[in-house]
Amino acid sequence: MLSQVVGKDVLNSKESFSLEDIANFPQGYEFNRQSMEITRIYNSAKDYLDADSNFDYKNTTDTKIDSLFFNSTENLMKGNSATDIFNNNNDGKESVNTSVFFDTTANKYTNSDGTITKGGLLVAIINENIYTREGKALQWVKVKALISLWTLKKWQKGGMIGIII
Hints:
The chain is built from seven helices and five strands. It is of the alpha+beta class. The model is unreliable at 136-142, 151-156 and 159-165 (pLDDT under 50). β2 (28-32) and β3 (38-42) form a beta hairpin.
């Protein structure tokens, strides 16, 4: 999703990005929840906020809208771009009760000069967009786990017990 919104050329242009770089990224997008294909990009916080205000959340096309990174409502209402990308609506902390918020461990993705690594940008997208937390990759992991479980049960029936990796 990041490369669809920001562009591969931009992402490949450097290893880490300043907060100014991040503020100049598109601020929102629409996407198909099933395919994760980006269908519309909103370049400014104002454009995203206007689109979000008028978005048909009851649509039957499985289209969703989201900001690229976390941006507080207060900051967004001022028309400011997202720069506090590792924060969330739980003050950047994990929520053990709802599992909606997680600790992004921003320090692992922030360089000493304050720039954010590409890996940090990916973590920030996952932090903002709940739909990125379960997609094709996670489905493949589930399939592999089921295959492993099936194989383990088959081995156990044959009298062999082993560990499937």
